[in-house]
Amino acid sequence: MNTANLRSKSWDEFSVPGAPPLHFVFTVCDKAANEVCPLWPGQPMTAHWGVPDPAAVKGTPEEIERAFATAFAVLDRRIGLFLCLPLASLETFSLQREIDNIGRK
Questions:
Q1: pTM for this one?
Q2: Number of domains the chain contains
C-alpha cells in the first residue's frame, strides 16, 4: 500500500462543510482518555483505544523500534477484531459495547 499521501489529520478537518462523514471515531492516544473529546459531526460511534505513544519512548534504537512494533501490533489486532464484527446485525448499544471492549484487549 502506498502511504506517501497519508497524513495525520486534525479533528477540525471533519467539521467543515463537505467533509467526509464519520461513522466511527477511535481515539488512540494513551493520554486522551482523560481529555474531553470534541463533538464529532454526525454523531459517529466513538471508543477510546489507548496505546502508549511510541514516539515518546526514549532508549536505544531497538527499544524505540520495539515500542513502534508493539503499538502497531495492538492497533492491528484491534482493527482486525473491529472488522470481524457483524456491523449490520448489531444494534447500537451492543455495537458500542463491542467497540469499547476491543479497546480493552
A1: 0.83
A2: 1
Asked if 37 and 46 count as a contact pair (C-beta separation under 8 A), the reply is yes
Counting beta carbons within 10 angstroms of the beta carbon of residue 93, is it exposed (0 to 12), middle (13 to 18) or buried (19 or more)? exposed
Domain assignment present for 63: yes
Q: Is the pLDDT score of 3 beyond 90? A: no
The model's pLDDT over 28-54, given as tens digits with 9 standing for 90+, comes to 887 655 667 777 878 899 999 999 999
Q: Is 5 part of any domain?
A: no
Domain that holds residue 77: 11-102
- Helix, strand, coil share of the chain (percent; to 5): 45, 10, 45
Distance CA 39, CA 97 (A): 20
User: Alpha-carbon distance 41 to 11, whole Å?
Assistant: 10
Q: Is residue 4 part of a domain?
A: no
Asked if residue 95 has pLDDT above 70, the reply is yes
| Residues 31, 20: Cα–Cα separation, whole Å | 26
